[in-house]
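To illustrate the input format used throughout this study, we show a single complete record. The first block contains the structure-token representation of the backbone; no residue identities are included at this stage. The design step must infer an amino acid for every position from geometry alone.
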């Protein structure tokens, strides 16, 4: 009887060891397969999102170019000689451009989006400030003052454009 128990133990121990090794091997193998599947899904999602994200950066770059005061003044001509009407027209044009691109914020970082908003607001502030100047009496004079100011300082949209370029470069090299 003792020999049978000893034989049983001698057969059982290798089976338990083999079973334990197989369990740990398959557990690690399944964990690695799960990680590989997740990586491949993430890679596919990135591949599909990349064109959308780059398109968002392109659209917002175009927005920033279009609200650059010198380009905005060429594109949006005054409808009358009233400086206040022209100021409202310029600001309305900026706001419409911005509203048209509002959904693009989901494809970029919060910091980049905030810089774009700050650029838009700074451009509007620049127009309002120029309109309040005592030497501005007409729409044409408002255009002249804004253009003169742009010769002396960098446009707010230039800073935002630089940031977009940096973020895209970082994104592509990551």
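Output of the design step:
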């Amino acid at each position: 009887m003792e020999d049978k128990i000893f034989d049983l133990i001698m057969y059982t121990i290798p089976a338990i060891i083999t079973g334990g090794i197989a369990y740990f091997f398959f557990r690690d193998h399944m964990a690695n397969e799960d990680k590989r599947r997740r990586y491949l899904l993430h890679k596919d999602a990135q591949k599909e999102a990349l064109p959308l994200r780059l398109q968002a950066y392109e659209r917002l770059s175009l927005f920033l170019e279009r609200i650059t005061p010198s380009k905005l003044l060429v594109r949006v001509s005054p409808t009358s000689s009233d400086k206040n009407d022209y100021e409202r027209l310029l600001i309305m044009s900026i706001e419409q451009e911005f509203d048209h691109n509002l959904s693009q914020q989901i494809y970029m970082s919060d910091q980049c989006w905030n810089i774009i908003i700050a650029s838009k607001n700074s451009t509007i502030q620049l127009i309002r400030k120029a309109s309040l100047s005592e030497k501005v009496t007409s729409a044409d004079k408002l255009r002249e003052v804004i253009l003169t100011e742009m010769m002396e300082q960098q446009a707010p949209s230039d800073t935002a454009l630089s940031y977009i370029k940096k973020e895209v470069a970082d994104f592509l090299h990551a």
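Structural context for interpreting the output: The helical segments are 2-67, 69-75, 83-100, 110-132, 139-152, 156-173. The mean pLDDT is 91.
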